[in-house]
Model the fold of this input.
Amino acid sequence: MENTIKEKQKAIIIDQEKRAHRWGFKGTGFVVSGDQFTFQSDRPEFDFFANQPLPDFLPYVFDMLGTDIVAAGKNEEIVQKEVPAPIVNEVFQNEITKLFPTERFTDEDYTRLIHSHAQTTSEEVYKVLYNGVLLRVVDLVVFPKSEQEVYQLIKLAAENDVCVIPFGGGTSVSSALLVPENEQRMVVSVDMRMMNEIEWVDEKNGLACIQAGIVGRHLEEKLEAAGFTMGHEPDSIEFSTLGGWIATNASGMKRNKYGNIEDIVQNFVLVTPNGILRKTAKHDRVSMGMPVEKAVFGSEGNIGIITSAIVRIHQKPANKEYESIVFPHFEEGLSFLRALSKSFIRPASIRLVDNNQFKFGLVLKPKEAGFFKQLVDKFKKFFILKVKKMDPDQMCLATIVMEGSKEEVHYQKKIVKQVANRFNTILAGGGNGKRGYALTNVIAYIRDFLMDYHCIGETLETTIQWDRVSVLGKALETVLYDQHQQHNLPGKPYLSYRVTQLYHSSVCVYIMFGIYTKGVEQPEEIFKQVEEKMREKVLEHGGSISHHQGVGKLRKKFLGDTKSKDHVQLAGAIKKQLDPNNVFGVKNTYDLD
Done:
């Protein structure tokens, strides 16, 4: 029996909450005022870090980058951005005015620019903030409210030779939203934010039908109100959408318990220029020919617009507990993860951070007053450094999240401790585990703060086999320092990484790196060259182009090293069948037009 949750809410306008061009919520971010450094926010999820002095952070940045970035001065944002005049297809635009009310389409410059980039640092955000211009932007933004409107819109685009680019939450870090500079047609961004309802929940079979434009945090809030969870928690959950997760073949922090997006989605609706593609059955698994519908996962806007999906849901876990474990060095932590992965339990989330990220978490811990608290901290430090003889410049940390019934969580904790006791570890407690898990949502704000002070940073993520993780880390450090020296860059480069998802023979490694660029000409272009060398090194060591962020335009040049000619031809055949006139000309992943 299907239980309807149709909360006929007003459409959620993300731009009212989100910072323009940058990552995150308005009123949230890192701020320097005099000699005080704080992370400011009034949002409850940041209570661990917000609105308290963080005196150790800037010294940490100085140590990592070799430069007093605040004293060296800011990189001032260009307020007046240059936006090219829109290309207008008059016949198409006249039809749009008949199909949509005036408040649901616009060619206003600000909105067009927002819909023409996502969050790739050097390719998009840096150019918008500090150069004030993108060479090509979308010409019109449309906000459909139904599958039928999406269908009619695509039909009009096909009839009038108009290019369409789907827009979800604008969180891509693969340059997926950049408009191809040589695109001569009118380009329309189809913003799915108004298709944000949970259409029905089937409690007995554990399924829900959800519109694709819903943002992750709202999806979970609505499901939790009915006692359920989908369990998909990517780092971008605050702003990314269900449709975007499917289109990029995403993964989440609780993949161990709930699966990746391809494990969660059982059905979907994809509107293409050649009709509507959908599975007719809700079954978990069938043996009925080639599953060609799986081409939607990782399609990245090339073949159509995902309007809804039927997903697996679970009863909201009755218990959630955290744990954290300190290791003397990264290799010891990696051995622990591998041993735990071979056990009969796998907690919802397990992440291992290297020493640089471990220190990063420590410097974001506010200095709490009180003699007793200071005494306890000194004792902990003595125990770690003197008794366990751990080196502060080598230590790393694993954070663990366990969910389920009281009995399930108790058993998970028992096994985690048993496995940890086989290694030289210190159990650091649930409080530190919860802080470490919450830290994920703070890290993204660091990038924008540092960018204001001439630092450009980015992330790489890859799937790589267990025995190559440590070798890859050392190789990336070498190539980053070599590139830093070759380009004669100031200060020191920054590199850190963490293991975030565990598989049978491999893991996901999430890599963050950055360079200081004050006084460097065309720093975004230098950074792009450095990033490409880093990615080449990942591939050289057997890593994938991406584990969960997709390919977009940023990584497509590397596909030739990982995909056969036959594979590309097959993808092209699917594209030709569903979109024969290249209405979806975003050119992500492959050049298929």
About this structure: The CA atoms of residues 286 and 522 lie 53 Å apart. Residues 1-14, 369-376 have pLDDT under 50 and may be disordered.
